[in-house]
Amino acid sequence: MTSRVAIEEHVVAGPDDGPYALTTGPDGALWFTMVRSGRVGRWVPGEEHTSHALDPASGPTVIVAGPDGALWFTEYQAHRIGRLTVDGVLTEFPLPTPDSGPYGIATGPDGALWFTQTAADRIGRIGVDGRVTEFPLPTTGAFPSAITAGPDGAMWFTLNQANAIGRIGTEGGITVHPLPTPAAGPVGIGADRDAVWFVEIAAGQIGRITPDGTVAEFPLPDRAARPHAITAAADGTCWFTEWGRNRVGAIHPDATIEVHDLPPPHSEPHGITLGPDGALWIALETGALARCTTEGDR
């Protein structure tokens, strides 16, 4: 399968602000973190972009729309979880374990936010009331990274330094699934209706794991592309960013892979999500959001 892809760049920040991750908010806007300048941005295509200031050194990373109509995000350097309403009211929640480095965050099927603690070998849960619970991993030095809700009612996460994918039930039970490729370095993760998909940044592969723990790996055309984030579209295609090669890629249901260059050079693509307009949107750390639309050709 080949696709005609149109990519448009929209500058929404300065070149040193570092747009990192993005999500569609409950207000129909795109919300994005700016990891270098400590801000959370909001943009509706065709309108002026705005932003909300945090501690400049807080390092906001992954952001999601919460079940309560607010935006929730991790503050990697400040070791907090942030909550921002669409009206701009900010609340920040310190974590019980100091210097835990929260990174990935996702809404769970239980109506809470689940997050990874990269430096503490823990998975965290925070209710919309701000109450935090932490669950220790059965291994040390694992560097849990991205997290997503799986098709089986559990949360799934990457263990970047343990070369594994983890699963935690909403009651707290944890299972670890080792990957076949040594030192693959799994980072980004997402899910469709049947399985969990992830990227292996060090091995240059896309991975798929089913709820029973069966793993399949799909090598990229360029094994040095350093894939970073992944998201599933409604048609069964998973789209991912290639941070090391300035590209966006797709893996189709038949396992064919295609990649497309991003127009701005050296743009450092990180987060990727489906936008309110049904298009794919990519956060470019050099200061922009890229809109990607496709028309399939079989």
Automatic annotation (TrEMBL):
InterPro entries: Vgb, Vgb_bact, WD40/YVTN_repeat-like_dom_sf. One of its GO terms (molecular function) is magnesium ion binding. Its EC number is 4.2.99.-. Keywords: Antibiotic resistance, Lyase, Magnesium, Metal-binding. It is an enzyme of class 4 (lyase). The active site is at residue 270. GO terms for biological process: antibiotic catabolic process; response to antibiotic. Substrate binds at residue 228. Mg(2+) binds at residues 268, 285. Signal peptide: none annotated. Its cofactor is Mg(2+). Transmembrane segments: none annotated. Pfam families: Vgb_lyase. HAMAP family: VirginiamycinB_lyase. Monomer. Inactivates the type B streptogramin antibiotics by linearizing the lactone ring at the ester linkage, generating a free phenylglycine carboxylate and converting the threonyl moiety into 2-amino-butenoic acid. Belongs to the Vgb family. This is Virginiamycin B lyase. The lineage of its organism: Bacteria, Bacillati, Actinomycetota, Actinomycetes, Pseudonocardiales. The gene is vgb.
